[in-house]
Amino acid sequence: MSYSMNIGSIDFNYTYNVAPMWYDRYTKGIRTHYGMTGEEAIPVLWGLYKHMVENKERLEIMHPTNGWGDYEGALRFVAALLDASILNPKEVWKGD
């Protein structure tokens, strides 16, 4: 299973297995920015990115035991979402 989301014409997909890392910051996890414009999502995604960097050791303990996903990949994914928000400030985030 994975999260699928997009902003404008840019599509993203990442495994659910790292969800506990994202839920550690937001009760909606990586879905917190759904329905927001890129501009609105920037502080949300920046907050998640910063939280992940500041809590690296604790979040690394949450690596999925099945090997699907890891801290570094989850952090890169958040950075990519942040970049997409910056490049698409007026578009709206959608996902399932």
What does this structure look like?
The structure is a single chain. With 96 residues, this protein is α+β, with helices and mostly antiparallel strands. The chain has one domain (2-95). It is built from four helices and three strands. Strands 2-1-3 form a three-stranded antiparallel beta sheet, with helices on one face. A hairpin with a 2-residue loop joins strand 1 and strand 2 (10-15). The longest helix is centred in the middle third of the chain and has 17 residues, at 38-54. The model has no long low-confidence stretch (mean pLDDT 95).
Instruction: Estimate nothing, just give the exact number of structural domains.
Output: 1
According to DSSP, the number of beta strands is: 3
Rg from alpha-carbon coordinates: 13 Å
Strands of the widest sheet, in order across it, are: 2-1-3
The ordered string of helix (H) and strand (E) elements is: EEHHHHE
Strand content: 15-25%
Shape verdict: globular
Helical proportion, percent range: 40-55%
Low-pLDDT sequence parts: none
How far is the N terminus from the C terminus?
Answer: 11 Å
What is the count of DSSP helices, taking H or I runs of 4+ residues? 4
- Class derived from helix and strand content: alpha+beta
What is the arithmetic mean of pLDDT? Answer: 95
Q: Main beta sheet, described?
A: 3 strands, antiparallel
